[in-house]
Amino acid sequence: MKRTICFVTAAEITVKVFLVNHLRALSTQYDISVITNTNNSSFLKASGLHLNIIPLFIERAISPIRDINALFGLIFLFRRYRFDAVHSVTPKAGLLSMLAAFLVRIPVRIHTFTGQVWATRTGVMRWLLKGADRLITLCATHILVDSQSQRRFLIKENVVSESKSHIIANGSICGVDTQRFAPNYEVRKSLRKMFSIDESDVVFLFLGRLAFDKGLLDLVQAFVKVSGIHKNVQLIIVGPDEDNMKQRILVHCEGCSDKVHFDEYTDKPETFMAAADVFCLPSYREGFGMTIIEAGSVGIPSIGTRIYGITDAIEEGATGFLYAPRDISELTERMLKMIEKPDMRNEMGIKARERVIKLYSKELVTSAFVGFYDSVFALESAKR
User: Fold this and answer.
1) Mean pLDDT value of segment 291-312
2) Do 128 and 94 lie in a common domain?
3) Does one domain contain both 132 and 251?
4) What CATH number does residue 135 fall under?
5) DSSP, res 42
6) Looking at the structure, do residues 234 and 339 belong to the same domain, yes or no?
């Protein structure tokens, strides 16, 4: 009889973006269920997966009444199905499902940390959110962390222990499809034409949530300085606007707004990466620079903040540059160097792709992920 594993996330998109390859590989050996906030219980069929999808509303924001309802819903489902393992991803799903699985005595309880909301907070909110992560760790039997530097940070902050926390392969939650994320000159030419960008222009790209903690205003202010020195520069910003950032960005780039381009959403990030020359992630907090290694796989270098998570994704001086968070002068200097040294920039892009293929391919990470589950269940059987 196959072992049963249930994955829990707060959003359908988390499953589609990060877990599909893992679910496909695991389903050859185990019976897989997925609990997530969805109105479409067949959303994985397009990926060729016919799994047991259980819709359950889990609110991402703090909402005591809805959170209690979700907790009782999870307890009911865990008692009904009696899974051998429950695996949560994302903070709220982790808190509720690890607590519910602990109460129901699910034997294997795994949570994946992909970054800490409280890392940039202060006061009561930091204490509260950090306490929630500690409760997750207390209730879980195993903790996965998606980068080495994040794991060191969590150990230092007494959130996880060395013995209970693990990294899959070399880090990242799912690795990169290096065939999908690959250099593509035709796509580069087509997308640049769409934005009326010359082939000779140096294009900087940001791709992610348009939120304050992503450091976008720092990037824009640095870009304004750079565009005052070099005319052949462009900035593309792609992602959902969560904090009315677009309007704030446009205020900052008065005088060069014709060089700043927006796109609200894409399910093909590789096309924008193929059109760019340098990827930028000026974030104040990040679990792992997933978009950085995707960009690296496309063959472009990155500039990112020197914080845990991003320091794993960028090899300083080889595949890109790091700078101190919020240091606009240092960011400007890094951007200028990328513009003024095209040979160095191209060499970094080549090394970035080589590094991703060696350390972060989806095949490598998924194989290690399945191996982790095999070892966990083997240990569980030995204990029994």
Assistant:
1) 97
2) yes
3) no
4) 3.40.50.2000
5) T
6) yes
Does an H or E element contain 142, and which? strand 142-145
Q: What pLDDT does residue 349 have?
A: 98
Which residue segment(s) compose the domain that 234 sits in?
185-359
134 and 234 share one domain: no
Could you give the CA distance from residue 137 to residue 141 in angstroms, rounded to a whole number? Answer: 8
For residues 112 and 209, state if they share a domain.
no
Residues in the chain: 384
Which of helix, strand or coil describes residue 341?
A: coil
Rounded-to-integer distance, Cα 219 and Cα 35, Å: 37
Judge residue 135's burial from the number of C-beta atoms within 10 Å of its C-beta, 0-12 exposed, 13-18 middle, 19 or more buried: middle
CA distance 114 to 132: 14
Q: What is the pTM of this model?
A: 0.93
Q: How confident is the model at residue 256 (pLDDT cuts 50, 70, 90)?
A: confident
Distance CA 311, CA 303 (A): 11
CA distance 222 to 324: 13
C-alpha 147/C-alpha 170 separation (Å) is: 7
Closest by CA position to 52, among listed 13, 76, 23, 18: 23
Cβ atoms 156, 119 nearer than 8 A? no
Half-sphere exposure of 162 (CA within 13 A, CB side): 1
Q: Is 198 exposed, middle or buried (CB count within 10 Å of its CB: 0-12, 13-18, 19+)?
A: exposed
The verdict on 145 and 124 lying in the same domain is yes
Tokens, residue 286: 């990040």
Q: How many Å apart are CA 41 and CA 186, to the nearest integer?
A: 37
Same-domain status, 11 and 119: yes
Can you tell me the mean pLDDT for 291-301? 98
Distance CA 26, CA 146 (A): 19
